[in-house]
Write a structure and sequence with these properties.
This protein is mostly helical. The chain is built from five helices and no strands. The model has no long low-confidence stretch (mean pLDDT 91).
Length: 123
């Protein structure tokens, strides 16, 4: 189940979008995950069955890259260091790779639930 989002409400109002864009950019860098080479989807907890199923659908390269980024960030955290600025994850590199799979799995589960509760009426 996905968390509630205000994205559509903010996107409909241009003035609100313009006002919140600098705050969102600041918050992204204040969170610090990009300074450790992580992507936003690397922060999604693996304790959910849906996320585990999405991880199984990743290509071997995406899976390896994810594990590498997480291990490198863990090592940086243990040594209390950050990556050099040229190795930080940029906004262009921080594209969702796991969220589309999670959404697809949730849609499949909703469709399955709808089909499982389908009743057939005979005349």
């Amino acid at each position: 189940m996905s968390a509630p989002s205000l994205v559509q409400a903010v996107a409909k109002r241009g003035w609100l979008s313009k006002m919140l864009k600098p705050v969102a950019t600041w918050y992204t860098y204040a969170a610090g995950y990009r300074q450790m080479g992580l992507r936003a989807d690397d922060l999604i907890s693996e304790e959910n069955e849906t996320v585990l199923a999405a991880l199984k659908r990743l290509t071997p390269k995406e899976s390896y890259d994810r594990i590498y980024r997480i291990r490198r960030a863990t090592q940086l955290s243990l040594t209390h260091k950050l990556l050099p600025k040229n190795e930080w994850t940029t906004q262009e590199e921080d594209v969702p790779y796991l969220r589309p799979l999670i959404d697809q799995i949730e849609a499949e589960a909703a469709e399955k639930a709808a089909l499982d509760t389908l009743t057939i009426v005979k005349n």
